[in-house]
Amino acid sequence: MAERKKRVRSLLRVSSRQQLHDDDIPVQRAEIANYIAGRPDWEFDREYIEKAVSAYKNTVKDREVLLQILEDAKAHQFDVLLTFMSDRIGRKEEYNMYIATLNQLGIEVWTIKEGLLDTQEDTDRLTLFIKFWSNERESRKTGERVKAAQQEMVKQGKHVGGYAPYGYELAYNGESGSHGRSLKELRIVEREAGVVREMFRLAVEENLGSYAIAKRLNEQHIPAINGGEWKACTVSDRLKNPIYMGYLTYNRRSHRESYQRNPVEEWVFSEKPCEELQIVSPSIWHKAQEIRERRKSKINHKKESYPVTTTGSLPLMGLLYCGSCGCRLTNGSRYDQWTLKDGTKVKKMNRRYRCTQRANASTKCQGAALYSADEIEPIVFAEVNQYMEKLKQSDVYTDILKKQEKARKMMRKEIEDIRKEQNAVQKDIATLESQIPQALRGEGIFSAEKLSELLKEKEKQKAEFEQLLEEKEQEYQATEPDNHDIDKFSQIIPNWEQEFMEADTHLKKVLLSKMIERIEIEKDKIKILFKISG
Questions:
Q1: Confidence (pLDDT) at 179
Q2: Alpha carbon distances (Å) from 338 to 298, 299, 332, 351, 512
Q3: 3-class SS of residue 517
């Protein structure tokens, strides 16, 4: 009886779109096919492919294909994983553990250039560790070389790739790069360039800020990027971009946990302006920056002079929604300060509720940006007073308790889910701890150092779950039905208006939250949705 051939699955990967050929990886596929053809005990089963996925920037958990390979290995769907080179699997030390896991599941890992990647012996694990350490170091060096090359290209006035900024498009320039691909360059899109010029005109000639410019463009129905509406932050980004005066830049942003704007002194500028890319003159661009800086300085001065400390001053916070766009209103309060003729300084809080959508110049919201608390709160309180008159003869306790119990059940389920995750982490810790004796003898699949690292990570997760669980338990206990509160509530009902108006802001919030689901406000009307029907 003929011996069963080993089922072979291949892994193809390139780290960038530029390395693809017609959105494919044909060279690696051909090499793998030839390699399998030279092994009569192997038969090709299927391939895994990763297009434009970095093995240096991403970890195993970030790469869906590697996770799928692991799942298929657990299901014993194949016997051999074949790839062109070890760096196709990964460029970090952690990938050493990934291969060890595959080996533990009975999967042989082969590369065309390096042969079998084994983790059975100490020397094998050490060799593999050195391979991935070398891959990671080479990735860092490559990244540094690419960064240096891109900086030099920018200094020479060349576009280094990426998306075209608003006002431009990417078009082929007739040249070819090192990979034989046609290169692209930036070219002005006149329709969008006209909008950019209008932004700078409004900023310089009419002295408008980003919010006012966004509002003006939206009112004129000028579509923004991707056809949406203009926002203040989008306009601000356009006004700050040196590309519009013809200067290409590099290192304006850096990616840490998220993209962040770097200080201007860290930017790399082209040595000369590219006249063919100029949409506004350098003098207009710099004038716009001067005006923006003066406005920013005034705003910062006002913030120092009139600090906003409004905690607890708005009893309707969390209940108020914009009736036009549905946005929950936020705190828009501020301190107003002025000086009397006798030199006495007077400071008064101007309590306001704010619609963020309208404040960002969105035309989707036709409501007001700000609502005075002194105007709307008396209206709401009067409506609540009428509502309470209807409840005086009703038994509201049952309804209140039902609502509270439903909320508590949801919170209890959330706590149980967190506890399950916590137990799973505890089991992982126990499993890893059982591997310690083998690791110390050098017989385990993990080194003692790696095992220690994994245990630290799991202990950290355990501590995080414990803290989260404690917080959720405290929240749950805080919702425990309090007969004293209910009695107090029942005592307030007969003399609701007087008792409520004399209560502090905190008690007002508590009472209102027990009765009201949400309040929708527009310029000329207020709609209150009560939790309990009167």
A1: 53
A2: 17, 17, 19, 17, 35
A3: strand
**SS3 state of residue 300:** helix
Residue 149: strand, helix, or coil: helix
The two three-digit tokens of residue 437, written as one number = 């004796």
- What pLDDT score does 305 carry? 38
DSSP for 257-271, please give it. Answer: SSEEEPPGGG-EE-S
Hey, what's the torsion of the CAs at 390, 395, 400, 402, to 10 degrees? Answer: -130
> Cα separation of 202 and 191, whole Å?
17
Entry field: residues in the chain: 534
Residue 376: both structure tokens together:
């709307």
Strand partners, 43: 7
Asked if residues 277 and 186 have their Cβ atoms less than 8 Å apart, the reply is yes
Residue 220 to residue 218: CA distance in whole angstroms: 5
6-13 vs 42-50, strand pairing mode = parallel
CA 439 to chain centre: 39
Beta pairing class for 108-111 and 80-83: parallel
Structure tokens at 16: 């960038």
Q: How does strand 268-269 pair with strand 249-250?
A: antiparallel
Average pLDDT, the chain: 77
Task: Supply the DSSP string of 303-370, one letter for each residue.
Answer: HHHS----TT--TTTTTEEETTT-PBPEE--EEEEEE-TTS-EEEEEE-EEE-HHHHTT-TT--S-SE
- 3-class secondary structure per residue, 115-148: EEECCCCHHHHHHHHHHHHHHHHHHHHHHHHHHH
Least confident of 55-64, 390-399, 469-478: 390-399
